[in-house]
Amino acid sequence: MCIFVFLKSEEETKCLGKNIAKELIPNSLLLLKGPIGSGKTSIVKGIAEGLCVKENITSPTFALSHHYYSGLIPIIHMDLYRLEAEISAKELFLEEEEEAKENGAILIIEWPELILSTVKSFWLIEIEYAKDFGREYKLHKPLDFKKV
Questions:
Q1: pTM over 0.85
Q2: pLDDT in tens, 44-103
Q3: CA-CA distance, 26 to 69, in Å (whole number)?
Q4: Strands of the 2-7 sheet, one edge to the other
């Protein structure tokens, strides 16, 4: 099953994230695909808010990953945008996946294209700019995804 959602604002995007947080469990994997500025980190902010994370959520574009342990479920937030080599992306993913499993964390990855062949069961959110304004979101739950 694929769910389609049209959202007009960052607040609506955060609300979507809060609703997704209600369905995530420890060791969930969430992949976020979409162009720059489409709202990937805003979804993560909403998920974090829904899980009562106290830290400020920021994009890990330069750090590659941020870890948040203050919430109901820990979150590891990765951004693979700056990585060009598939091997580097996969190595980082495997390190962070191990950490997530050890801590029962949710692993959220922006720009996951380089690691798609490595992952098996995951949530996928695909984001596109809407024709006039806003964003279109396609949400695939773990049992209905296809390798994209």
A1: yes
A2: 999 999 999 999 999 999 999 999 999 999 999 999 999 999 999 999 999 999 999 999
A3: 12
A4: 2-7, 135-140, 123-129, 29-33, 106-110, 75-79, 65-68
Is the pLDDT assigned to residue 145 strictly greater than 50? Answer: no
DSSP code at position 139: E
Q: In order of start, what are the domains of the chain with their CATH numbers?
A: 2-144 (3.40.50.300)
Q: Under DSSP, is residue 129 helix (H, G, I), strand (E, B) or coil?
A: strand
- The span from the CA of 116 to the CA of 87, in Å, is 12
Provide the β-strand partners of residue 65.
78
How far from the centroid of its chain's Cα atoms is residue 147's Cα? 16
Sign of CA dihedral 144, 18, 32, 23: negative
